[in-house]
Amino acid sequence: MRKNLFQINSFRNKYQTLVNEINLIEDSLKALTDSELRAKNFQLKQQYKDTQDLSPLIAESFALTREASLRTLGLRHFDVQLIGGLVLNNQKIAEMKTGEGKTLVATLPACLNALTNNGVHIVTVNDYLASRDQVSMSQIYKFLGFDTGLIQNDMTSLERKKNYNADITYVTNYELTFDFLRDNMALNLTDVVLRPFNYCIIDEVDSILIDEAQTPLIISNNIETPVDKYIIAAEITNYLTLNIHYKVDEKNKNVILTDQGSKQIEQILRIQDLYDVRDPWIPYVINAIKANALFFNNVHYIVQNDRIVIVDEFTGRIMPDRRWGDGLHQAIEAKEKLPIRQKTETVAAITYQNFFLLYPKLSGMTGTGKTAEIEFEKIYNLSVEEIPTARPTLRKDLPDLIYKDQFSKWSAIAQTCNQISLTGQPILIGTTTVEKSEMLAQLLNEYRLSYQILNAKPENVRRESEIVAQAGKKGAITIATNMAGRGTDIILGGNINFKIQKELYDILTVARNYVLSKNMNILQSPLKTKFDWSSQKFLSVLTSLVADSNFLKLSDIDILRILRENDKISIPNNSYTCSIKFLIDELVLYYRKSQEQENRIVKNLGGLYIIGTERNDSRRVDNQLRGRCGRQGDPGTSRFFLSLDDNLLRLFGGPKIQEFMQTQMMDDSPLESNFLTRSLDSAQERVEERAYQQRKNLFDYDDILNKQRNIIYFERRQILNSASNQKNILAYGEQIITDIFLELKKERASKKDILLLFENLFGKDLSLLSSKNAKALTDDFSWTELKLYLFNEFWLTYQSKINELAVYGDGICENLERSIILINIDRIWREHLQKMTLLREAVGWRGYGQRNPLYEYKQEAFYLFENRKKILRHLVIYDLLRSSIL
Ligand code: ADP
Ligand code: MG
């Protein structure tokens, strides 16, 4: 304990000097007017322009942001929030507990780094959070003269571009990464939406860089699927015998072909090499064997409406939308003699890991980063700094209760809920699956308890946030899967903002509909009784509002949007937003009193009670759940209810646990055993470690592809940016001629053959060949003369193409050339991506020998990539000289 305190103190000292400086400057800012503050910020911008150094500006910029926040939102950054901001600016991860105000913390480094004019990205996990944070924080930025942008899923590229050009842009990791991939497929500079990367702050950084880093982000096309190969491979399995032709590795769900097996198959197929990258059979064969030896009908999948539907092994649940990847699904379809569905082709892909590493300056914040510190450091070079809370934490984490089986565990949970709810203390129960949430709901029904249930479906995020926000109300019981409503602040006694939004929305839409239906007499309308609301001033403003023709033009959605955005707007921009603002303020005044009362009552009851129903795959996720109570010095309690047959213990507990279970005589009462807690901890760490290894492995393999992608995207961008590519084209043509000469001279090809080759490339007859005594002529020519002749022919052909295209107008030729180069770069890259996927699979199988698969993979990837320039030159010249405008 003592050591901990010391660590925090020394850590604080590091930043304390700057914090003191900020506090000092802040005092001097108090006397300035709003416009003087803005002018000061402008000065900082100028200063940066001159010096290109942000460090001397930190204290002043932070002080300005703090003052701007106080004057617009009424929130003054706490000192620990300043420290958080400094950590973020130092390209680190700030671990700040839930409710400590990370949204506000981000404004500090955002404003500082926006002084560079190069843009700041603040990344969140979903559209709802991006929009919420942008709306609430934009006032600070606006006050200081910065503009903000927001990217949402349904935006056009024009809107995206505009929003990315803002000083500070709020965006989700998904949209941002997709925009990056799309930008790198653009054929025109005008379609590119992103600027070069500058500074990025990732909110809930562990969710994005760890939990979501398992799978790469992919843009794909449907492609023709070699149905025959799947069917033939399925047939072949009839001629293979276990342990002679192949071996099965059940634990890793893999099969290994023996030498005898490979030979047998090569014979049946009459091919030379099963592993040939140009005509690969091996993936089909391996998948067919796997489909036979490892995947069984009604165990791993069921057949439904001519389709294979996956069954989850741990839960037994069917997963209708999932498909096994890499051709396995098709192999099982072939085995079951079902129609084989199309495969998709990757046209662009990147992992979050490599994407975020593209930022020259990267930082992140989260409530739970410490347990993943090593991974952050190793992969992202980001260290984690724990920031002390503004107020001391009062949360009580009670020891785990362990039951003998699921039945007694869930009964105990329901019983506990019933007991706690007698006092009215609010409860939040976290589950791992939707099924379990629903099962618990059934149990709570038996006690006649009322509850809210949330499932973390992407389409429900906003609604779920609204529900979670009320989880701190007296008597509330909320059942939520892990991710549901994340990022939402749970205020004890309930959140009045959401409540007011909803109530005013109802009032406004009902009132407007009355007016529109020509029943002007709204004061007598059921409004009063319906909303139990009767302030005279309120009603008169409402009456004038519904007489405003501009207001009447708004749709329900418009009203909803205004209410959401008006939530914290200080400067209304027209008559009706002004009135709405007034109505909101009235409601806030009215509800705030009761909220304060409620808040005190719930605090006296002990705050929010968190119940965990199972240990998760990582300690981080458990901590996220616990962290939902005890915000900003609130009281709160957390307790996990576990069972000996929970997945974690069952699968990773080891043999000792099994023994323990058998020797214990157990009734329904819970166990508290150090041995069990230790086993649980180590099982959880094993799972974490395994997941980390998988991500590390992905990262290692992705490394070479990542370097190649960077090269391609760089080359591509140069072409995209250049006004003319004629120099490139000339160089391509000359290089082709030189290369072919080198190669063919070695192979002793005849001069005539060479000329024929070039006729084909240039797409026209060569005069030397078509003249009558071609043979004599070619014989008379020396190799050097022939080469010069071809150079000349190429220049002429190219020049006449340019002349031909010039007829259509200025720039047509340049655009065509650029498009032809880009399209071919993309085509080669796309083909390279497919080859790399095959290679990845092939190398995995070969790895069972003595060779190191990663090394092999990198070697071959290098060779596959090396040829691309040569191929590009040929494709470009071939396409260009044959192009015409219709
Ligand atoms: P986190 O993301 O860290 O969980 P949020 O950014 O959602 O926390 O903020 C939680 C709550 O704390 C919000 O209601 C916010 O308005 C409030 N808050 C943040 N900073 C301050 C501050 N300096 N003073 C008062 N309230 C604050
Ligand atoms: Mg947050």
UniProtKB/TrEMBL annotation:
GO terms for cellular component: chloroplast stroma; chloroplast thylakoid membrane. Its main location: membrane. Keywords: ATP-binding, Chloroplast, Membrane, Nucleotide-binding, Plastid, Protein transport, Thylakoid, Translocase, Translocation, Transport. ATP binds at residues 81, 99-103, 489. CDD domains: DEXDc_SecA, SF2_C_secA. One of its GO terms (molecular function) is protein-exporting ATPase activity. It catalyses: ATP + H2O + cellular proteinSide 1 = ADP + phosphate + cellular proteinSide 2. It comes from the Eukaryota. Gene3D superfamilies: Helical scaffold and wing domains of SecA (1.10.3060.10), P-loop containing nucleotide triphosphate hydrolases (3.40.50.300), SecA, preprotein cross-linking domain (3.90.1440.10). NCBIfam families: secA (TIGR00963). PANTHER family: CHLOROPLAST PROTEIN-TRANSPORTING ATPASE (PTHR30612:SF0), SECA INNER MEMBRANE COMPONENT OF SEC PROTEIN SECRETION SYSTEM (PTHR30612). This is Protein translocase subunit SecA. It comes from Durinskia baltica. The gene is secA.
